[in-house]
Amino acid sequence: xxxxxxxxxxxxxxxxxxxxxxxxxxxxxxxxxxxxxxxxxxxxxxxxxxxxxxxxxxxxxxxxxxxxxxxxxxxxxxxxxxxxxxxxxxxxxxxxxxxxxxxxxxxxxxxxx
Length: 113
Prior knowledge:
Helix content is 32%, strand content 40%. By secondary structure, it is α+β, with helices and mostly antiparallel strands. Strands 1, 2, 3, 4 and 5 form a 5-stranded antiparallel β-sheet that branches. A hairpin with an 8-residue loop joins strand 2 (43-53) and strand 3. The radius of gyration is 16 Å and the shape is elongated.
């Protein structure tokens, strides 16, 4: 049976920008490009961005925390196995997309597709 497995997370994006507003926008754009390029995701969303760490001196970078949600499809006999397979597929796809320092607020959810 096919299951859609979804997971919400947060990743940190470090970049040089002029203001908090442009840093959040640039981090969101960078994450969107990474998620869009990863074919494993059948759906994704960016749910918000906040400055995690601002520059402490001129020319220092911003670190922005960006919240996201992703969904993959997996074949499994039951929802428990689907969650396990989906969790691994999501982790692999996020690594392939170049995301680092990903944290998750809750376990993956599996629903019959």
